[in-house]
Design brief:
- This protein has about 270 residues and is mainly α.
- A hairpin with a 2-residue loop joins strand 1 (about 240-245) and strand 2.
- Helix 1 (about 5-30) runs parallel beside helix 6 (about 110-130), helix 2 packs across helix 6 and helix 2 crosses helix 7.
- It has a single domain, classed as Vanadium-containing Chloroperoxidase, domain 1, CATH 1.20.144.
- Helices cover about 75% and strands about 5% of the residues.
């Protein structure tokens, strides 16, 4: 089993479990002081399974998404069954681009466990500060990462092929799919100013996976497509329409008049 399954998705689950334990302990020591993030997490966790099911269905039953995934899957099969994957791997081995520091840095940056932990911290801080906007965005990121993680692990178990350096469960690349999930969610929420740099980092993570022999190019190709599809679909579904930082909300007029329209709301 490769590093994604040993240390990636499940380490994120472990981090979540540790946070819950710490939250429970803090409330046991001082029951009069309730942790806002812990109370919020309990409420969101009750609805989470249903949200994951609905968002997964909306992601994988959408015609455009299915087309993209089928095309990427077909390209991956063609690359792996031909000499393309082997030729690319040999070229990467002859022209290594990442030294030891860059190698380990992008391994950490692209690690799914790091993504889960950072998102959990984002959620906790937002809940404690009663920042509902960022709390919901963090929960959306957590949902997208979970859907991507479960899908990636499932596909790895079904395919069960070896990486260039002899590890199991190569396809698709979990580091790459998780990194592109993060980039896609950030792009949906914050636009290209944040999205483009995030995509650049995700691309470097994918390049690193091929450069070190941890993955075939076909693993990275499908992983990037999967993360892009999941991230954009889940975040696009849950983001609120904004104009110049103002949230667009429906308006139905006052009790003494009639009419409908929209209002611009900004919370401080």
């Amino acid at each position: 089993m490769n590093s994604y399954c040993r240390n990636g998705f499940w380490s994120g689950v472990a981090c979540a479990g540790l946070i819950l334990v710490v939250g429970c302990a803090s409330q046991t020591e001082n029951p009069s002081k309730k942790s806002l993030w812990f109370e919020s997490a309990k409420s969101d966790l009750r609805r989470w399974p249903n949200r994951i099911v609905k968002d997964s269905r909306d992601t994988f039953l959408k015609a455009d998404n299915l087309t993209a995934l089928l095309l990427a899957g077909g390209a991956s099969i063609a690359m792996h069954n031909s000499d393309a994957d082997k030729n690319l791997h040999e070229n990467f081995q002859r022209h290594r681009a990442f030294g030891s520091f860059a190698d380990e840095s992008f391994n950490i940056i692209g690690h799914p466990g790091v993504h889960f932990a950072a998102t959990g911290l984002w959620y906790a801080l937002s809940a404690e500060n009663q920042d509902d906007r960022n709390k919901e965005r963090a929960w959306t990121m957590m949902t997208a990462l979970t859907i991507n993680g479960l899908t990636t692990v499932g596909l790895k178990a079904i395919r069960d092929n070896d990486t260039p350096n002899g590890k199991r469960w190569a396809w698709p690349s979990g580091h790459t799919s998780s990194s592109f999930t993060v980039a896609s969610v950030l792009h949906e929420f914050y636009g290209p100013k944040v999205g483009i740099p995030a995509y650049a980092v995700a691309s470097l993570v994918g390049y690193r996976m091929m450069d070190t022999g941890d993955h075939w190019a076909s693993d990275v190709l499908f992983g990037a497509t999967l993360g892009w599809v999941v991230g954009h679909t889940v975040a696009g579904k849950h983001k609120k329409l904004e104009i110049a930082g103002f949230e667009v909300v429906p308006s139905i007029g006052d009790p003494h008049g009639s009419g409908m329209g929209v209002s611009l709301v900004k919370r401080f």
